[in-house]
Amino acid sequence: MDFARELKRLHDEGWTFKQIAQVACKSDTYVREYIRLVEQGEDRLIHGVETGVFPIQFAMSVASNDDSQMQNILMDAFDQQLITTKDFAQARKILSRRAMASADKKVPKQYTVNQLKHDIATAARHKTSFVREAKTKENRFITLLNALNHLWRDPNLRKLLVEEKLQQRPALAGDFTYEPEENARASN
Q1: I want to staple 45 with a disulfide (CB 3.0 to 4.6 A). Which of 31, 33, 59, 66 is the partner?
Q2: Is 15:41 a contact under the CB 8 Å cutoff?
Q3: Contact present, 58 and 86 (Cβ < 8 Å)
């Protein structure tokens, strides 16, 4: 904390972030974000950064939340290795949704890291279910496309389509295409 307060003092005396960064052997961005943590009184976050528990980017993301309980839950979840800097945004979204569902638009006081863990598992199950459903629909579409390609190879059907002036295949939107017509003719 002494290091953090000293950086803040230097800035208050008129030193630029660049000058402070040179003295502290850190980047300008690091010094700017670090001083912002000091100005916001985020002692627990500063301590976490100083001890190497989490990076400054994580600390700044947590500090951007106005709700102190949400900050504490996120830091506790990080301490317990429930979330990482990579999935922090998803955890914050889960907490925000929980807060929006509550009457006073804040995370309920009784909300705990264990409940966050449960909410993360539920969100993961929903995502897995969505991916499974999307793959099933894609497989059905590809089966249908293959069936159409097979039908297109039938000379009697093609003759009928020409007679009815329907020989032009419809265009498909997306990355899916019909089998090239020369392949269809070659297989006949």
Answers
A1: 59
A2: no
A3: no
Taken in order 80, 81, 85, 90, is the CA torsion positive or negative? Answer: negative
Question: Any idea which residue has 């003092």 for tokens?
Answer: 9
- Residue 154: both structure tokens together: 């039938």
Distance of alpha carbon 32 from alpha carbon 11, whole angstroms: 9
Report the Cα–Cα distance between both ends of the chain, in Å, rounded.
80
Q: Give CA–CA dist 163/152, Å, rounded.
A: 15
Q: What is the pLDDT of residues 75-120, one digit of tens each?
A: 788 878 887 777 777 887 887 777 776 666 666 667 778 888 888 8
Number of residues in the chain? 188
State the number of CA atoms in the 13 A half-sphere of 93 facing the CB: 6
* C-alpha dihedral sign at 33, 34, 40, 42: positive
* Cα 67 off chain centre by: 21
3-state helix, strand, coil in the chain (%, to 5): 70, 0, 30
Spatial distance between the Cα atoms of 106 and 99, rounded to a whole number of angstroms: 4
SS (H, E, C) 6-74: HHHHHHHCCCCHHHHHHHHCCCHHHHHHHHHHHHCCCHHHHHHHHCCCCCHHHHHHHHCCCCHHHHHHH
